[in-house]
Amino acid sequence: MRQHIKGLFDPYILALLGTVALASLFPARGVWVGIFDTAADAGIILLFFLHGAKLSREAILAGAGAWRLHLAVLGATFLLFPALGLGISAIPGLPAVVATGMLFLTLLPSTVQSSIAFTAIARGNVAAAVCSASFSNLLGIFVTPLLAALLLGNGGASISLSSVEKILLQLLLPFVIGHLMRPLLAGFLARNKSIIGYVDRGSILLIVYTAFGAAVVEGLWRQMPPATILLIAILSAVLLAIVLLATRFAGRLLGLLRGDSIVLLFCGSKKSLASGVPMAGVLFPAAIVGQIILPLMLFHQLQLIACALIARRMGAQAEA
What we know:
By secondary structure, the chain is mainly α. It has a single domain (2-312), classed as Na+/H+ antiporter like fold, CATH 1.20.1530. Helix content is 80%, strand content 0%. It is built from 15 helices and no strands. The longest helix has 34 residues, at 286-319. The protein is globular and about 55 Å long.
């Protein structure tokens, strides 16, 4: 996962920015809208199928004993973050779509790959990181839509029968099938990690292009001037700083061993772009998905840069 920790010039981040630029200049129109919508749905299904296939039961069982740690990670992910999101969304004068996007960001599960990679670099408990991040990601398939229904009722999110059906068919079912097929696919996935990585990230780029293209057609950049984007970046930076400090302090307060406190720091402070983009496509009208995921994209880049620096420093301290 080296590409996740190169910081500002991460090729994947540049690809995301390029995708947004492409969607801004050449959004899908006419007959292409239906084609790209179908392709994006297929990308979502493939993405969660791969998530399930890559989930290792052995690694989860190896780290499952640290129950206090896992509860702390889930508490940071699904309690602390949403509480902060509610506070941000209540700021007077904050544009409604920014408030909704920031709140939606805080409802998402943790990342898997980058959380594990940063934990390894910082010399933390990798087995526990695999367990915490994977469980958070799996639980997020259920918890994020429920939290969205409770907290985003006025933000365009809705949990109708059709939304539940889409969540089950596009997210949960492919995840379960992929995990059940892991014994057959584990060897292939291990031999073709780089190719699978390109497919994984390519699916996200396709979904981002479709979402942003639909938003551009509806006037995204007229509604998101540079001042608003700067405001989102500032709010994301403040949110990340608060959670990093809170998880660091919580590790000491709970008396966790160094390796476990590193897991809490990195797994508890992340939000998953890979889960958030397709979930936004399920929960929000197509016309506003691009605006909703903009805070997530900015937060995603900030978390990678900050955690890369922190992980390297902690790793160097451990070696010393």
